[in-house]
Each structure stands twice: as structure tokens, then as C-alpha cells.
Amino acid sequence: MRRYLLNRLWQSLVTLVLATIVVFVGVRALPGDPALALAGEDRDPESLRAIRQQYGLDQSWLVQFWQFVSHAARGDLGQSIRTGAPVRSMILSALPVTIELSVLAILIAGVIGVGAGVVAAVRRGGPAEWAANALALLGLSVPHFWLGLMAILYLSVALGLFPASGFVPFFTNPVDNLHHLILPALILGTGLAAVIMRQTRSSMLDALSADYIRTAEAKGLPPKAVIGKHALRNSLIVVVTIVGLQLGALISGAVVTERIFALPGFGKLTVDAVFQRDYPVIQAVVLVTATAYIVINLLVDLLYSVIDPRIRVRGEA
Amino acid sequence: MTRRLPLSLTRFTVSNRHRKAAGAAAAAIALALVGTACSPVQPAANDTSSGAQTPSGQDVFGEPADASQVKQGGTLTVALSADPDKLDPTLSRSLYSRYVFHTMCEKLYDLGSDAKVVPQLATALPTISSDGLSLTIPLKQGVKFADGGTFDSNAVKISLNRDLTLAGSARKSELGPITSIETPDPKTVVIKLSKPFAPLTAALADRAGMVLSPAAVAKLGANFSNAPVCVGPFKFASRVAQNSIKVVKDPLYYDAAKVHLDAIEYRIITDSSIRSANLKSGDAQVADSLSTQDTPALQKDDSVTVLQSQSLGYQGLTINIGNSNGIGNPLKSLGTPLAKDPRVRQALALSIDRDALVKSLFGGLNTVACSPISPKSEFTSDAAQVCPAHDPAKAKQLLADAGVNTPYKVEMVTSNNPDSLRLAQALQGMVKEGGFDLVIKPVEYAALLDQQDRGDFELLQLGWSGRVDPDANIFNFVGTTGSQNVSGYSSPDLDKLLTDARQSTDQAQRVKLYGDVVTKLQQDDPIIYMYRQRNLTGVSKKLLGIQVYPDGVIRTAFAGFAK
């Protein structure tokens, strides 16, 4: 297990370095630079030169990369070229919003997806399965942007149930915070709910036809225990994997959702930074995202061993 | 070589309602106007200051709040279409930062609803010496900065010097050839120039005229934007990167009794449909830059008023004439017929039916433009509003005269946002009739600017938001040494006209000179001006006192919620 862990950590470090290099080069390969994006229509060559000099953009890529890496290693992620604010504080204030949004989205998606998946598997061939499949198809095919817009038009504008935009920090007012986040989390969670539902349904169908379920039924266990304790628990391994793998999709979904609902999250920060060619912000968010992605995948792998003891045994062998 | 001559029948009024009549009477008008520059574009409509159901195409600036009808307190939420850049008047370049500055950084001068400069922190317009080399500005007294410091001539001097010297200053070029700033007493500033520079007063009615707290400048230096301090009805409270900015009422403001709101929050919502939805749901009470597609529905909404103000800028097509080396390098022709022959450029201009464009694409909310000078500008004239009529037959003839085979293929670079693409597609269909095969090359905005500066384009669609003084809308774009002459155009005649106009302090002479500038520009067409945008602002009817002026800045500072 220890060797396995060390091996995974080493792989993670290499991935992180590669991701940093790719983003550093990739963002500079894009046409335009922060000075142009900052100056917009109101630019003159002298100002552009001054901006490039001020942020070291006139230096070689190698020098710029070394500066970024050496500063990042000390925890200094630089200053936003557009707003002048420290990138570290920008990320620290955006991250909790996206984490909270994602956790809520996963919770909502989990409840809807697992619930619908179990119902579809148990009531196979009936209208319940048909309805669950139709919902899953809708969840997968409808873009977040459109869904978000519709939710604002019907649930915020017409019915006034939820705010259409804005954010209140959890520790300022927890109720207001949830009130502002439920609609975005629901929108963000729809795609994931559909994926979870389909996965739960298919895993449950496999499990329900397995020998151990027949044995459990033969022992006279009530259906609730057979489904909940035996079939569902075994199906959840695949579901947990899916949630881990879908994290990337969740973050990219958060980009759109945060823009629609004007949430000061990480996704909005990222996409705006790309449009504004705010190199320090882009590099820092990719560094943080890559780290988070790697750590979460690592945790999911470790979680396998908790859910399925056979993996732990094999890992230790 | 056929040129568009002033007495040609190809020019006449393009206003919708005048077009048919003008077509019938064109010959008579042309004869009557021999030697003059034909008919001007009519202003879209008379100004009006109120009314939610105002027909499209009329300016609705809004009215000041009646103190007896508003209650004290409350937080106003403004949905902004883009994130302002640095909240530092010296370094800021974004139009949107002006919305925020207006509430917390007053200027020496401001703009009135008639686009004329009026005093704000000054007490009167500047007294200009007879040689035009000295401006004396009298200042208000008893004014405090938000940090308690005293506003005086020394503070003005520090701010102006910072504009002139700070690395990356976006104000330096706006201030012109200033040699020194003198402060004979705390309530007087004297600006000395090496050459007369007429646009200076208008520049002082924008960010260059904002006065920063000397204490905050000393403390924060180049990081002033992290906690900006000026004189204003509100003061900076907080900023969440790329999401929101909050300002709160400043009790030290000299006219604090007129301020009704407790705070204003600017929330960044980039999608226009979602801004409109926030306005309807009441999550925002003001939304800027409404889409022309959403506006008709909002105009019918009983809870919303749509303020309209015609932009001082323009949307146009820039033709790469001599910018094949990239801006800042020696001019070199692109070598295409469009770059070499003015007749081909004239043909392209004649292929565009501006009237149909404005009507069909923008529901008549935007207005036709054929020059960089807005009909709302105090420097407008008949000559400045002459407009070539849509004449595809003439365009084809010009192409034949220039020896160009039709359809003549032209590549146009444009921004990849939906509005720009719609415009490009409309143009594509339109210019076909005139013998052009327009190929659309959509790119992202920052990439567009890059291609523009590198001279990597044949034709490019982009606009300019506009400034009060025409010099700021023309010189930099078509002057040989202009910092944004991305067309690579060079005409000694035009350069002389522009230099004379910027150095003249005689208003009538400047009006005449800018008329001549437009005539010359329409002969050479380095930029084909197409239309002027209308700044559309949605305002909840629960709110009173929101105003929009021709500079496009939404005035929120003295608004209040209705009782």
C-alpha cells in the first residue's frame, strides 16, 4: 500500500509539472497578450510597452516561467494584470464558492441520480424506468446555459422563488447562502445526476441478477435489505468512480453556471482570466485545479479500498 | 478615375423617413447644393427626457430624482456587462470603470445631457489665454476627500502629474503637451502648454480630470486601485475579483444631503439576456448595454424603463491600406486593389445599405453613421453629416473602372460574439450586390486586437466608444502618426486639417475644419463608418433619478428608491 501510494504521488507530481508547462506555453501561444486585452480600444504603443515591461512580459518565456515557478513555490502566485489584486487572495475567495457549489451539486445529483437509478432498475420495463430514462436523456442533452436561463426566467422572474444572481457567504447568512446556491447547484447537478442515474441503473441490474442477491432473497431477507444493503452497496463502487471522473465535467459546468448566476467562483475567475489574457491568474488557477484534480483522483482510488476490501488486500499483497 | 464628388447624386439624406422623398428630389437637391456637401444625416429624433414607451431611436436620458419622492437608504444593484479594470483613474482603460468612478471619483469637469462640458470640482470652465498656452481653472472650496483630506490645487497638481508620469498611464496622451502645472493659491490651478491643445478641457471631463487623495497616492502608489480614495458621493468599500464592486455613501461628501442610497453594488453579468432577466426579477435594478433584441420586450414591461442615449462613437470597417508591417513600423501598402485604389473602397462603402442594416438588424435603435462626428456633438455640421447613399450599381461601375473582376473577394476579420457575427452576415449579403464576395473570419476579441495591430487583415470590423472632443475620435485613427492608425492611412492634407483643428481655440473654425476632415475621409475611406450605437440601459421603475448621458456613463449617484 505504501509503495502504491508513493508511486501514485510521484505520478501526480509529474502530471502537475507537465500541466503547468503546457498551460504556460499554451496561454502564450494564443494571439494577443495581457497588455492588448487590458488596453482594449484605448491603447497606444507607449502604454502597451509600459504594461509589458511592468509585468515582465517583455522577458523571455524561460525567465517568465522560472519567475512563476519560483514564486509559486513560495506561495506567491503574483498579481492580476487586469485588476492589480493578489492572485492568491482572488483564488482563496473564489475557491470556497465553487467547492460549496460543487458539493451541493454532487449531493443533489447523488440523491436524484441514485434514487432514479434504483427505481429504474427495480421497476424495470415499467413507466418509472421510462420516466427515469427520459429524465436522464434530458439531463445529458440540455446545455447548462439554456437550462440556467430557463430556470432564471421561470423560477426567478416568473415565480420569484430563487434569486437570479448574487452570492452571500455561508458564514454571513447560511440561509441566504443556500437560497442563492440551490438553483445554480440544481442546474450544475443535472448532467451529473443523469450520468449517476444511468450508471446506478446498469450496476444495479448487474447486481440484482448476481448469485449473492439470489442467496439473500433465498435467505428470506426483506426486499429493502436486499436492494439497499446488498445490491446498492455493491453498485456504489462504480458510482463513486463516476463521480470522481466527472469532476472535470463538474468544474467545466461550474464555469458556465457561475457566469449565468454571477457567482464569484473559480470557474468564472478562470474563464474571465482567459478572455482577458490575465496570465498570472490563468497559470495559478490551472495549478490549483490540476492539484485538486490529482488529489481527488487519488482520494477516489483510496476510497475504493474502503468500499471494496478486496482492492486493499490486493494492494497490500 | 471616378470619385464621389460633392454634387454627385450618390449622396443624400439617409434618415428612414426622408429617404424616399430624397430619392425623388435628389436631382433638385443636388443642383441646389452645388459646391456644398449635399444633405446631412438628420439627427435620429429630438431629445426627450422621460417615458418608458418612447419609440425606438429617441434619446431618453432619465430625470434627476425629486427628493420628496424618494426614500433614504437601500442598496442599488447595477448589472454590469463587463468587469471594470483597475480602479485607478490614471491606469484605467475600460469604459466600465467609468461607471464606478462616477460615484466615487468626481472630476474637474463633467458632461451635461447636451454633451457639453460643465464644471464639477471646478467652479467654472477654464480661462484660456489668448495664445492658447495657459488654462486657469478655479476650484471648489470646502471639499473633502473620502479619507478626510482637503481637496485643493495641490491635490489636482499631484493627480495631473501622476497622469503624466506614472508608468503605463492611460491618461498621458489625453492630456496633450502640458509643460507645467502651477498652483498660485489653493483654489486655482494653472496648466501651461507648449502648444495649444483644444481637447484638454474635454479630457478633464473624463478620467484625466479625476482628483485622487494625495494621502492615498502616497500610501498606495501604483497599487492605488486596491483601495481608491477620491472625492465623491460614495466611497470604495470592496471588490470581489471579476464578480462585484461595492461602494458606500460617503458622509464627508460636500453635497451628501443629495445622496439617497446607502450603497451601490456593481454585479458583473456578461450575458445580456441574463442581465435583462435580473432586471425583471428585481435582483438588479439597473442593467447596462441591453441587447437591441431584448429591448423591445423590456420597453413593453411595466416595471422597467429603458433609457437611451446615442453613442458619441461609431461602428465601422477599417481597411488595411498601409499597415502590412504592423502598427508602429514604417507604412507599407498591402498591395490589394482595396488597399491601393480608393475607388474600390468607395465601391465597398456604396454597397452598404446602412439604413437597412440599422432597421433590420437593430430594430431602428441604432442610427446610421457616415462620419466619426456624432450629430449630437457640438462640432457637427452639414458637411460632417454627409452620407453616401446605398448604390450597388455605382459600386459595380467603380469596380469596373478600377479594373477589378467581380465578385471581388475580400476577407473581413470580426469579433466572434453573436452580435458581431450577425452584423457580418448581414454585410456579406449586402455587399454581394455591389460586386463583393465577403469572407467572414471570426476571431476572439483579444486575438482581433492582435491581428489588427500586426496588420494581419484586409478588412476589419470594430468600433470606437467615442469621446466628447472629435479629436479623440479621429486623430489617433486616421492621422499618419496616430497611435491607433491600424489602417496605415497617410494623407498630409488630412494631417494638416487635424493638426489645425486640435490647435484652434475658435469653435466655429474647428467645426469647419472637422467638416473638411469628413469630406477628405469619405474620398479616401480608410474607415467606412456604418452606424452609431445607442447606449441602452434598463432601469426598474422602483428607482428614481437614474440618468444616462451621451458619454454612455450611467449616473447612479443621486438616485433613490421611490417612496
From TrEMBL, chain A:
<keyword id="KW-1003">Cell membrane</keyword>
<feature type="domain" description="ABC transmembrane type-1">
    <location>
        <begin position="95"/>
        <end position="304"/>
    </location>
</feature>
<feature type="transmembrane region" description="Helical">
    <location>
        <begin position="236"/>
        <end position="261"/>
    </location>
</feature>
<feature type="transmembrane region" description="Helical">
    <location>
        <begin position="134"/>
        <end position="157"/>
    </location>
</feature>
<comment type="similarity">
    <text>Belongs to the binding-protein-dependent transport system permease family.</text>
</comment>
<dbReference type="Pfam" id="PF00528">
    <property type="entry name" value="BPD_transp_1"/>
</dbReference>
<feature type="transmembrane region" description="Helical">
    <location>
        <begin position="101"/>
        <end position="122"/>
    </location>
</feature>
<keyword id="KW-0813">Transport</keyword>
<keyword id="KW-0812">Transmembrane</keyword>
<feature type="transmembrane region" description="Helical">
    <location>
        <begin position="177"/>
        <end position="197"/>
    </location>
</feature>
<keyword id="KW-0472">Membrane</keyword>
<dbReference type="GO" id="GO:0005886">
    <property type="term" value="C:plasma membrane"/>
</dbReference>
<dbReference type="InterPro" id="IPR045621">
    <property type="entry name" value="BPD_transp_1_N"/>
</dbReference>
<keyword id="KW-1133">Transmembrane helix</keyword>
<dbReference type="InterPro" id="IPR000515">
    <property type="entry name" value="MetI-like"/>
</dbReference>
<dbReference type="Pfam" id="PF19300">
    <property type="entry name" value="BPD_transp_1_N"/>
</dbReference>
<dbReference type="GO" id="GO:0071916">
    <property type="term" value="F:dipeptide transmembrane transporter activity"/>
</dbReference>
<dbReference type="InterPro" id="IPR035906">
    <property type="entry name" value="MetI-like_sf"/>
</dbReference>
<protein>
    <submittedName>
        <fullName>Peptide/nickel transport system permease protein</fullName>
    </submittedName>
</protein>
<feature type="transmembrane region" description="Helical">
    <location>
        <begin position="281"/>
        <end position="304"/>
    </location>
</feature>
TrEMBL record, chain B:
<dbReference type="GO" id="GO:1904680">
    <property type="term" value="F:peptide transmembrane transporter activity"/>
</dbReference>
<feature type="region of interest" description="Disordered">
    <location>
        <begin position="42"/>
        <end position="65"/>
    </location>
</feature>
<dbReference type="InterPro" id="IPR000914">
    <property type="entry name" value="SBP_5_dom"/>
</dbReference>
<dbReference type="InterPro" id="IPR039424">
    <property type="entry name" value="SBP_5"/>
</dbReference>
<keyword id="KW-0732">Signal</keyword>
<dbReference type="GO" id="GO:0042597">
    <property type="term" value="C:periplasmic space"/>
</dbReference>
<dbReference type="Pfam" id="PF00496">
    <property type="entry name" value="SBP_bac_5"/>
</dbReference>
<dbReference type="GO" id="GO:0043190">
    <property type="term" value="C:ATP-binding cassette (ABC) transporter complex"/>
</dbReference>
<dbReference type="GO" id="GO:0015833">
    <property type="term" value="P:peptide transport"/>
</dbReference>
<dbReference type="InterPro" id="IPR030678">
    <property type="entry name" value="Peptide/Ni-bd"/>
</dbReference>
<protein>
    <submittedName>
        <fullName>Peptide/nickel transport system substrate-binding protein</fullName>
    </submittedName>
</protein>
<feature type="domain" description="Solute-binding protein family 5">
    <location>
        <begin position="116"/>
        <end position="483"/>
    </location>
</feature>
<feature type="compositionally biased region" description="Polar residues">
    <location>
        <begin position="45"/>
        <end position="57"/>
    </location>
</feature>
